[in-house]
Amino acid sequence: MAGRLEMFRARKEAYGQYDYPHLAHHTRKLIEAGIYDKQLLEPFTDDQLEELNAYVRSDRDMNFHYAGSMQMTTKYLIKNRVTGRIYDAPQHAAMLIGMAVLPTRYQGDDLIQQVKDFYDVVSTFEGSLPTPIWGGVRTPLRQFSSCVVVEAGDSLAEINAACDVASLYGAARAGLGGNLGMIRAEGSEVRGGLAYHTGVVPFAKKFEASVKACSQGGIRGASATMFWPIWHLEFENLVVLKNNKGLELNRVRRMDHCFQINGYLWQRLQNGEQITLFSPHEVPGLYDAFFADTAQWIKLYENAEKSTTIRKKTMSAVEVFTQLLLERTETSRLYLMNVDHCNTHSSFLPEIAPIRQSNLCVEITLPTKPLLTVDDPNGEVSLCTLAGVNMGKITSLAQLRRVVRVLVNFLDALLDYQDYVVPAARNATKKYRPLGIGITNFANWLAKNNARYSDGSGNNITHAFMEAFQYYLIEASVDLARRFGVAPGFHATKYSRGLMPIDHYKKAVDELHDEPPAHGLGNPSSQRPALWYA
C-alpha cells in the first residue's frame, strides 16, 4: 500500500493528475522545457507514437513495494535535484529509455518491437538497469556507463590527466577505478636529481579531491577505488591510507584501496620468506610485466633483489600481509586483486591488452593505458555499461534467453547512442564494446528453488543457471556480430583464438558442483562485445 501511494504521489507531482498523460504530449512538454533530449521523438512517426503510448501499462506501477518506489522517486526518475520536483513516472521512463537508445540501431517495425520488448523486460522487473541509465537516458546528458577505469602514468602530465578524467566522469554519474600504482616513491630523483619526488600520497590526495569535488548529477556522491602493487616501495604509507589514525595530510580516507598481488608473492608468504619493495620506475619493465607476463616479472624481480644499486626495502612476507589484513579488518574497505589470476581468466590476452586494475567495486577486468591530457586519443579509459537479469523473475531457460537478448541488444546500441567525456574513453569503448551483464535477486531465486547459500544445496542448480546464462550472452553477441560487424578490438580477446571461459576457468570450481562443463557453441569465430557478463 505504501509503495502504491508513493507511485500516485509521483504521478500527481509529475503530471498534475493521478493518471498517465499521453506519452508524446508530456514528452514534448519536457523537451520544450529543456529537461528531455530534444531528439527523443524524432525517429518516430505519429502512428508509432500512438502505438507506443497505447502499450504503456500504468497498472505496473502497482507492483512496486515501498522500498522500490522510494528508490524510483529519490534516484531514478528525472527531477530537479535542487527543488526535488519530479518530472516523470516509472512507466513513461521505462518506455522512453528504449525509445531514446534503440533508434541508433533499429528502424521501422523492428524498432517498435525492440522498444516494446525492452519496455516489458524493464517494467515487469525481469531485468534491472543501473542508476546512470535510469536517471540519465532521456535527458540531454548522454553518459550512461556505470564504471570508469583510468590509469595514471608516472609523469606529472599523466597524473593530472587521470585526475581530470576522474573529475569529469564523477560528475557524469560514473563510479571510478583509479590506478596510481605506477607513480614513483617518495625521495626518487626527478629530472636527473634536480628535484626530489614527493611520493605517492600527495597525488593520491589530489585524485581524491578530483573525485569528491563533484556529485553524480546530484543523485549520489562520486566514489573511487585506488589500486596499488603490494611491492611498491611506499607500501607502508599506502596500506594505512584509510586508517582513522594519523593526520589528514597523510590519509586518503574518502577513497577505497585495493592492493595487487600475484601467486609468486602468496608463495613467499606460505614459505615464510621476504618480500622486497621497489619504486616501479627504478626497475625497468617490472611494472608492465607484473600484469602481462608473470614469468618475466619473477625474473626481473629476483634480479632487482640481487642488485646493489637499486633502492629497495625488504620486509617479512608475514609482516606485509599482517598489515594488509589488519587494515582490511579495521576499515572493511581494503581489497585484494590477484593480477595474474585476473589476466589468466579475463576476456583479454595479457600480451596484447593486459588487465592492470579494476573498477570502484573491484569486479571488472578491462584494459587501460595512461593518457597525457584529457584530449589524448592514444590512451585508453575503459567503460563498463551495465544491466542485470532478475533471477527471481526467471522461471525457464526460454525466458532467460529472451531477457538476455533484450539487454545485450539495448546495451550495445547504448554504446553508440551515448557521448564520451574524453576521446580515450570513446576510442576504447568502440574498440572493445564491453558490456557488463550481471544478476540480481539470487537469494530469492534460491529460496524459490528450495536451496540455500550455506549448505551447498544450491550449487548444482546455480551452476546450471550460470552455464545457460553465459551461453545465451555469447550467443546474443555472436548474433550482433553477424548483423552489425565484429568489434575492432576483438583480436585482443581470448575469444578471437577460440578460447571461451570454459577453456581457461579455474578447475577447482569443478569440486563445487556435480555436472561437468561442456562446450555448447563450439568456438565462434566472431563476436561483437569483448565482455559479456560480470
Secondary-structure map:
Layout: H1 2-15, H2 23-32, H3 46-55, H4 66-76, H5 90-101, H6 108-123, E1 127-128, H7 131-134, E2 147-151, H8 156-171, E3 175-179, E4 189-190, E5 195-196, H9 200-212, E6 224-229, H10 235-238, E7 256-261, H11 263-270, E8 274-277, H12 286-292, H13 294-306, E9 313-316, H14 317-331, E10 334-338, H15 339-345, E11 382-390, H16 397-417, H17 423-432, E12 435-440, H18 442-448, H19 459-484, H20 501-504
Parallel strand pairs: 2-3, 3-6, 6-7, 7-10, 11-12
Antiparallel strand pairs: 1-11, 2-11, 4-5, 8-9
Helix pairs in contact: 1-4, 5-6, 6-16, 8-9, 12-13, 16-19
Enzyme class: oxidoreductase
Region (Disordered): 513-534
Domain Ribonucleotide reductase large subunit N-terminal: 63-141
Low-confidence stretches: 519-525
Give the strand tally. 12
Q: State the end-to-end distance.
A: 35 Å
Number of helices: 20
CATH class division of the largest domain:
Alpha Beta
Multimerization state: single chain
Q: What radius of gyration results from the CA coordinates?
A: 25 Å
Tell me the count of domains: 3
Based on the coordinates given, report the CATH architecture of the largest domain: Alpha-Beta Barrel
Helix content range: 40-55%
Give the strand content: 5-15%
Report the structural category. alpha/beta
Q: Do you know the CATH topology of the largest domain? A: Anaerobic Ribonucleotide-triphosphate Reductase Large Chain
**Overall pLDDT confidence:** 92
Q: What's the main sheet like?
A: 8 strands, mixed
Q: What best-fitting shape do the alpha-carbon axes yield?
A: globular
